[in-house]
Design a protein that fits this description.
There is one protein chain. The protein is mostly helical. It has a single domain, classed as Up-down Bundle (Growth Hormone, Chain: A), CATH 1.20.1250.20. The chain has 16 helices and no strands. It is globular and about 55 Å long. The C terminus is likely disordered. Keywords: Cell membrane, Membrane, Transmembrane, Transmembrane helix, Transport. It holds the Pfam family MFS_3. It is found in: Cell membrane.
C-alpha cells in the first residue's frame, strides 16, 4: 500500500473508488434492462460492442490529444460529461422512453467519453505518486479499486434492482462521478510537459514506438487475445443467470461478483510484486487460468463450481491486464506515457468490444454454453503457443526497464 503515502494519490484513490462502484452498478443494471426488455443475447453483444468500439478507434488518437493538453483539467471535465450521460439514461428509463436504439446510442456516447477518460486516469497516476519506483504499486492499487468495485458493484446492483429499478442505479452512477472530480480538483501537481507538434506528428511518434519495440508490441498482442476471448464472458452472463441457472438479477450479481472477487484477489497479488521481469510469467499464466475457468464454466450447472470458475476467469484476466499495464508504463519513456496508455486502453477495451460482439452473435447461433466452450478452447490454444515467448520477453524487460532485477521466484 506504499503508494497511498502520497497525498495526491490518496485523493485520486478514494474518488476513484466511489466512481468505479457506481460504474459497475450501472453496467449490471444496463445488461439486465436490455435482456428484460428484449430477451436478445445478440443485443447484449451489440451494446457491449457499441460502448467499447469507440475506445478502439478513438483511443490512440485521444492519447495523442491529451498529451498536448493539461490532463488534470481535462479529467475533471470528462467526469462531468460522464455524469450527464448517466443522468440522461436514468431519466429516459424512468420515463419508459428507452428502447434498443436509444440504449445503443447512449452506449456509443459512453464509449466516446471513456476513450478519453481511461487514458486520462491512467497516464496521470505517475504524477500523483511522484516517484517512479512507486508507479507499479500505484497501478496495482488503482486496479485493485476497479476490481473491488467489480466484486461489490454487481451484488449491490442486484440488490438495488430487486428493491428499486434500473433508473435508480443509473442515477447513483451519475452522482458517483462527482467524487472523482472532487478528488482530482484537490490534487496539486506540476503540469507535465505537453507534447509539441501537430496531432499527426504526436500520434505517429506513439504508433512507431508501440509497433517497433518488441516487448511492447508482443505484450499488446497478448492483451488483445485475452480480451477478445476471455473478457467476452460478461456479455453472456445475463443469459447464463436467467436461462441456465433459472435465476434473476440477483443471480447475475452473484456470477458477476464472483468474477470480480477473483479479479480483486488478482490485483492484491500484483500489489505485492516489486520485480518487473517476474510479471511475464504472470501475464502468460493469467491467460491459461482464464482458459481453464471458461472451459469449466461452460457446461457446469452447479452454482458453487460455477462461482469458482468465474473467480478463476476474473483472476486470470485481471493479472494479465494489470501486469501488462505495469510493464508498459514502467518501460515507456515519460513523454510517451499518455500515448502508450491510450494504446493499452484501446486494445484492452476495444478487443473486449469485438469479443463481446462475436460472443453474442455466436451464442445466438450455437447456444450460450457452446459459445463459452469455443472461447475457452481458442484461449487455451493461444496459451500453449504463448509459453514460447516467456524467455525472450523476460530478457527484454530486464534490458529495458529502469528497475531491471532477477525475476520473482
Amino acid at each position: 500500500m506504499r503508494a497511498l503515502a502520497h497525498r495526491n494519490f490518496r485523493y485520486y484513490f478514494f474518488g476513484q473508488a466511489i466512481s468505479v462502484l457506481g460504474s459497475w452498478v450501472q453496467q449490471v443494471a444496463l445488461s439486465w434492462l436490455i435482456y428484460r426488455l428484449t430477451g436478445s443475447v445478440a443485443l447484449l453483444g451489440i451494446t457491449a460492442f457499441a460502448s467499447l468500439l469507440p475506445i478502439l478507434i478513438i483511443g490512440p488518437l485521444a492519447g495523442a490529444w491529451i498529451d498536448r493538453h493539461d490532463k488534470r483539467i481535462l479529467l475533471i471535465i470528462v467526469q462531468g460529461l460522464l455524469g450527464l450521460q448517466a443522468a440522461t439514461l436514468s431519466i429516459l428509463t424512468a420515463m419508459d422512453a428507452i428502447g434498443p436504439q436509444l440504449i445503443v446510442a447512449m452506449a456509443v456516447l459512453l464509449g466516446v467519453l471513456t476513450a478519453f477518460d481511461t487514458p486520462l486516469r491512467q497516464a496521470q497516476i505517475g504524477s500523483f505518486v511522484g516517484r517512479r519506483e512507486d508507479l507499479p504499486n500505484a497501478l496495482a492499487l488503482n486496479a485493485m479499486v476497479f476490481n473491488a468495485g467489480r466484486f461489490l458493484g454487481p451484488p449491490l446492483a442486484g440488490l438495488l434492482l430487486g428493491l428499486t429499478s434500473e433508473s435508480i442505479c443509473f442515477a447513483i452512477n451519475a452522482l458517483s462521478f462527482g467524487a472523482l472530480a472532487f478528488g482530482v480538483a484537490r490534487i496539486r501537481v506540476t503540469p507535465a510537459p505537453r507534447a509539441a507538434g501537430s496531432m499527426g506528428k504526436v500520434f505517429s511518434e506513439g504508433l512507431r514506438y508501440v509497433t517497433t519495440e518488441y516487448p511492447i508490441k508482443m505484450l499488446i498482442f497478448i492483451l488483445a487475445t485475452v480480451n477478445i476471448t476471455a473478457s467476452s464472458y460478461a456479455v453472456l452472463l445475463p443469459v447464463f443467470a436467467k436461462d441456465v441457472f433459472a435465476g434473476d438479477a440477483r443471480m447475475l450479481g452473484w456470477l458477476w461478483g464472483a468474477a470480480g472477487a477473483g479479479a480483486f484477489l488478482g490485483t492484491v497479488f500484483l500489489a505485492t510484486r516489486q520485480r518487473l521481469p517476474g510479471l511475464i510469467k504472470v501475464v502468460i499464466g493469467g491467460a491459461g487460468l482464464s482458459a481453464v475457468g471458461l472451459l469449466v464454466f461452460a457446461y457446469n450447472v452447479m452454482l458453487v463450481p460455477a462461482l469458482l470458475a468465474m473467480a478463476a476467469v476474473g483472476f486470470g484476466i485481471s493479472v494479465c491486464n494489470v501486469a501488462v499495464n505495469m510493464l508498459l508504463q514502467s518501460m515507456a519513456p515519460d513523454h510517451l506515457r499518455g500515448r502508450v496508455v491510450s494504446f493499452f486502453s484501446s486494445t484492452r477495451f476495444g478487443f473486449d468490444a469485438i469479443g463481446g460482439l462475436l460472443a453474442g452473435l455466436l451464442a445466438a447461433r450455437i447456444g450460450v454454453q457452446a459459445a463459452m466452450l469455443v472461447e475457452g478452447l481458442v484461449l487455451a490454444a493461444f496459451f500453449v503457443w504463448a509459453l514460447r515467448l516467456v524467455g525472450r520477453l523476460r530478457a527484454e524487460v530486464v534490458r529495458r526497464s529502469d528497475r531491471a532485477s532477477p525475476a520473482d521466484s
